[in-house]
Amino acid sequence: MPLEVLQFPDPRLERKSEPVEDVDDELRELAREMIQVMYDEPGIGLAAPQVDRPIRMVVMDTDWSEEGQDKNPVVMLNPEIVSRDGKIVWEEGCLSVPDFSAEVERAGHVVVKYQNLEGEEITEDVTGLRAVCFQHEIDHLDGILFIDRISRLRRSLYVKRRKKQLRLEEEPASLGS
Ligand code: NI
Asked: By C-alpha distance, which of 87, 88, 17, 92 is closest to 52?
């Protein structure tokens, strides 16, 4: 069955995910499927809890764009930010937050540590979009969405709009009558 990307306000997006202990074939297959979903959607990052697997795994490809051909997906297990400094404001969107984007302030420079599927410990020192993406995806593992990091007013306007949209989807018959 193809993976389904959960969408706000699905409460499963608010769960805190568990560390990955073992790499087995099932996990490798999940990583492959998540990469496919990321490219299909399209997106530049996807966290396992977004596809209803509450484990600390993220796939990311910040070099890729819809037009570009170079694909360089990275699978990260148990990623954590070991240091952060500076400041960056980036217009963010999310596959789990339909029809919305907003400027979010985050650390402009982070050092991130994670394991890959081969069990190696990787450290990345990143800025710009890649720093933003790491922080956004690691937030997913802790049940946090980017709309939790914008002003309360902007968030509540989005929530209102989203709920209205969902109501309309539920009652298609009321539209034409
Ligand atoms: Ni996201």
From this structure: 17
Instruction: Mention the CATH class of domain 11-172.
Output: alpha beta
Give the catalytic positions in this structure.
137
Ligand 1 midpoint to CA 140 (Å): 7
Residue 95 Cα, ligand 1 centroid: separation in angstroms? 6
What does the domain layout of the chain look like in residue ranges? Answer: 11-172
Which tens digits make up the pLDDT trace of 21-61? 999 999 999 999 999 999 999 999 999 999 999 999 999 99
Q: How far is the CA of 167 from the centre of ligand 1 (A)?
A: 23
pLDDT value of position 63: 86
* DSSP type of residue 177: -
pLDDT in tens, 86-121: 999 999 999 999 999 999 999 999 999 999 999 999
What is the rounded CA–CA span in Å between residue 141 and residue 134? Answer: 11
- Dist CA 123 CA 27 (whole Å): 21
Which residues partner with 106 through β-bridges?
A: 88
For residues 21 and 55, the answer to whether their CB atoms sit within 8 Å is: no
Q: 122, 77 in Cβ contact below 8 A? A: no
